[in-house]
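the two lines:
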Amino acid sequence: MATPVLAVLVTMVAGGILFAFLGKPPIEAIRVIFWDPLFSEFAFYYRPQLLVKGAPLVLIAIGLSLGFRAGIWNIGAEGQYIIGALSGAGVALAFYPLDAWWIFPLMVLGGALGGFLWAMIPALLKVKFGTNEILVSLMLVYVAEKILASMSLGLLKNPEGYGFPGSRNLQQYPSAHNAEIFTGSGMHWGVAAALIAVIFAYILLNRHMLGFQIRLTGEAPRAARFAGVSPARLVLFCLGTAGALAGMAGMFEVSGPSGQVSIDFNVGYGFTAIIVAFLGRLHPIGILLAGALMALTYIGGEIAQSKLGMPSAAIQVFQGMLLFFLLALDMLTHFRLRLAAKGVA
Amino acid sequence: MTGTLLKIEGLTKAYPGVVANDTVSFAIAEGEVHALLGENGAGKSTLVKMIYGLVKPDSGTMTLRGAPYTPSEPRAARAAGVAMVFQHFSLFEALNVAENIALGMENPPKMRDLAARITAVSHDYGLPLDPHRLVGDLSAGERQRVEIIRCLLQSPRLLIMDEPTSVLTPQEVDILFQTLNKLRAEGVSILYISHKLEEIRTLCDSATILRLGKNVGTCVPRETSARDMAEMMVGSALHVPERAHGDTGEVLLEVSGLTNAAPSEFGTALKDISFTVRAGEVLGIGGVAGNGQDELLAALSGETRGAAETVKLKGEAVGRLGPDARRIKGLLCAPEERLGHAAAPDMSLTENALLTGARREGLVSGGFLKWGAARRFAEKVIEAFDVRTPGPDNAARSLSGGNLQKFVIGREVLQRPEILVVNQPTWGVDASAAAAIRQALLDLAAKGAAVICISQDLDELMEISDRFGALNEGRLTPLRPAQGLTVEDIGLMMGGAQDMEVAHV
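prediction for all of em together
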């Protein structure tokens, strides 16, 4: 359990060195990233942002962690996120401008279903033909991006948008708007969904037979088959759940913070969630904490960009380092590094 | 027998919570075959690992030919002339014999020279082996030869062998013993670990007996009965399994025309296997490892499925059902590989109790786990089968092999199976625990269950079976009543020493 904390510390040091090479004050940069969003003068503005950024990360990472525990590697959450957003927005726009209470719940279902179906593509291909879910799910991200571009330029384009790409803004459609539950808190329905997902995942893994089977499959696949676990069922369940949660995350985003379907709607939550899942040790509570930490680097990174003129690529490198050091430290706790003298043959 | 080769004095090694070796002392003479005896967890493995440089002793000294011997790693041990053949082979199936041997060498010679040396050594010691064959195509006995030849190429002074005969047919054992005798005649000392006491009586010159990490005695095996040796190991009188001969009842399991393709490149295909087992009967299935034992168990447990009619439970065709469905109907199995197949290594014993006991023991309700009940079931298994562990929260991996085996068998037996299939039920288990496991199997049969015992231990099969058959390249020989079968009969049923004619030209 100490390794994630250690990984964060090592990342700070290595990140500081990186920032120094970029000619930025390292200590200050670290302080801006980790401290300012929480405790600076303008923290009241940044704190809600933490929830907004953290919720999709946690929601997606929870779904991914189930599969990762069982050795099922869904790398395509980004695609499932996009398709979920398109489905959710599609539901809303189909009913526009009808005013009804059931539109938003229907959008949630639509988003979940969209992500679920998109994840079923790698799942069914794996179950039926033994394809590699890593490759298929990853490739489908790029397909989803093309669909997103097509939708924002075509089918879902705002008819009153003066020809600009992008859909109507759902924030201005009350029945479909994923508004804050408490104004100014950043707490929208996606945050609530993420918290519920954490609780459900915790119960599933610790109290339910299916969760036991997931853990068993990850620990000892042969013993799992002996116990009677059906690998195919598990693939469908894990990919399906991850897809549905990612789809919901996309839907909450498109109907709330983002507001509209646009070409550059997706910002990489689906990939960052992989880091969050591992940083959180694939444990629901860990993922909650890791999601908060990753959201912090997002917000802090933005502050660093505006305040210190830090290039955005530097922040992405910084986030990548976190996963790199976590995996490296894991490696070093399991294996001992030894310098071998090369013998002469 | 000339001087002393290896002298061990006051060797001690403690692990957290357990003293594995407590001031162990003994000596091995040059050209002596020395047996190391003891129950599971008596400290044999730790002791041997210290000699081979895998583990550092906490205190005590070792002297090799009069000079202090403190190997820091196996490489140092090998350089000093100590070689070891492990119980588990460390061979790559996709490489050939010579490549495998080259991998274990510090400075491998050219492949052609190495192949020539392998052929020469294998002829000298009566262990014919083609250096160009793929290891994946070799039988277990031949794989062991690869390991032995790998050691012999180093011209060792001391050869350590950990349970070398557990995977061999009787004929192969004879060939191995001829080789070991030849080595002894050349002055090589052999430290021999085995649970098979009769073997030790034929082969070994002297024996050291360990109990709970302490050296409790020495004996000359030729002059000591197997029973006396077993009792020295256990420290009390040995219980020999006894059976109350009941009448056999209805046919519980019927297998007919079971044919399965090999599950992997190096697996074995099952070919047209047919047999029946009746209530109250123990069916023993022998055979050399790798002749379809794992595959047969998988076909019975439901891990591999076939046509419905190939496996019938009390007349009901279940060939298409998975493990869980078959378990509910009363067919339970205990696979050979404990870690990773019968049990999940890093999960607790409670979780491992859940692994097969979930349905029959009612450890789930409405999909939710009843941890309390699972824990009580694990505790029941631990209690009833004398599993030595601090408690059910410990990981399966933390148990010694024999103790985990007791847990795995106990977990199935306590679920009151109607048909129990076990593969190698006492593999690596000490004499008293093995006796307890066999007794449990016999008791189960006496209560009206059908038991199928797949094993490579012929003494075990003879002790408990009513009928006997052998697997040979995926085929099952016709079943014969076990009573009256001689070791030679069985050896022939198992296919004798396949491709094993001693190749002295």
